[in-house]
Amino acid sequence: MLASSRLPKAACGRRALHAPRPSSCSIRSSRVTVASVASPVPEGTKVKVTADVTISHVARLGDYSLKGQEGEVVKDVSVHKDQPTNATMPLRCKFVINNDGADVKVIAHLAEDEVEVL
Question: Sorting pLDDT into bands at 50, 70 and 90, what band is 110?
């Protein structure tokens, strides 16, 4: 009969036993500097929506197209703590839309290619 190989049992509440990583296999992240990323749009910058963006999260407006609307950038999250982020819609923009005589404030997250800086 073949000799059974004894595998070490993992203690209760511990992860399975793995071989330690050799010191020559250290993982290093490649840091990207802010200079290599598109410069963020400053807060308060006036923008105009050029793409056909439809919002539906404001109940008083229903489905509303923002194309042609002018607003301002509230925050740009494309860079955080001098490091680029992977936000798909990094511009948080505020719009004031006149709806039957009442002004409705709308905040929408937009991509940089959907707006034009005025």
Answer: very high
